[in-house]
TrEMBL record:
Gene, per the UniProt record: LOC121203182
Lineage of source species: Eukaryota, Viridiplantae, Streptophyta, Embryophyta, Tracheophyta
Similarity comment text for this entry: Belongs to the oligopeptide OPT transporter (TC 2.A.67.1) family.
Species assigned in the record: Gossypium hirsutum (Upland cotton)
Membrane-topology annotation of the record: Multi-pass membrane protein
Protein name: Oligopeptide transporter 5
UniProt cross-references to InterPro entries, sorted A to Z: Oligpept_transpt, OPT
Pfam annotation, one family: OPT
Segments passing through the bilayer: 20-38, 89-106, 137-154, 166-187
Keyword Protein transport annotated: yes
Length: 226
């Protein structure tokens, strides 16, 4: 995210001191927010002691812990190697290498079809990799805004696009941040005794998502794989 912002700043030709001030302010706010949460929310990094339905967790802590278990304790051989359950995922390395070739071949076979060269397989595959965390509505919003301003507006109003497009992008990011703060203070902070809405529900509607997939392991409420 920071690299994207720096790229936009460079395109807007914002002075270096402004970049420095913005970075200092942003990092200070991040640190202050994290410190405030860690010191005011009891058991924030211990989900087992939190009240049921509490939105306060430590996702970063879970990520680093899971990574240490996968790569340090279990080992990649027992995860993605011949002894693991996910060895077939290694084929995606080959798929990623081969995927751009059909697009390149089709662009050579049909040079009059200019749109074929616009198909970017690494971007498509990389973007789809975020689907488990994002939702389809996120992709629809992103795609519709991107097509509107980077296709139609770019073709018909290039002067406006060159002058305002990066400012628009920064404004959209700022709007998301402000709305996140507004939604938190108006809807989510008092969600326990306040209004109920879909954005504050942590349930992913998949009760089996936390079940083990290793054969023979029995967990209450989960199927046993053979």
């Amino acid at each position: 995210m920071d690299s994207i912002l720096l790229y936009r700043y460079s395109c807007l030709k914002i002075p270096g001191m402004s970049k420095l001030v913005g970075t200092v302010v942003a990092t200070s706010v991040y640190f202050a927010t994290a410190w405030w949460l860690l010191t005011t929310v009891e058991h924030i990094c211990d989900p087992s002691k939190l009240t049921k339905g509490s939105p306060w967790t430590c996702p970063g802590d879970d990520i680093f812990y899971n990574a240490s278990i996968i790569w340090g304790v279990v080992g990649p051989v027992r995860m993605f190697g011949r002894l693991g359950l996910y060895s077939k995922m290694n084929y995606f390395f080959l798929i990623g290498i081969v995927a751009p070739l059909p697009v390149w071949i089709l662009s050579r076979m049909f040079p009059e079809k200019k749109w074929i060269k616009l198909v970017h397989m690494p971007l498509i595959i990389g973007g789809a990799g975020a689907l488990p965390a994002a939702r389809v509505v996120n992709y629809w919003c992103w795609g519709s805004v991107g097509v509107l301003f980077n296709v139609f507006v770019y073709r018909r109003y290039k002067g406006w696009w060159a002058r305002h497009n990066y400012i628009l992008s920064a404004g959209l990011d700022a709007g998301v941040a402000f709305m996140a703060i507004l939604c938190y203070f108006t809807l989510q902070m008092w969600n326990v005794n306040g209004p109920k809405w879909w954005g504050a529900q942590l349930d992913d509607h998949c009760p089996l998502a936390s079940c083990p997939t290793a054969p023979g392991i029995q967990v209450e409420g989960c199927p046993v794989f053979q």
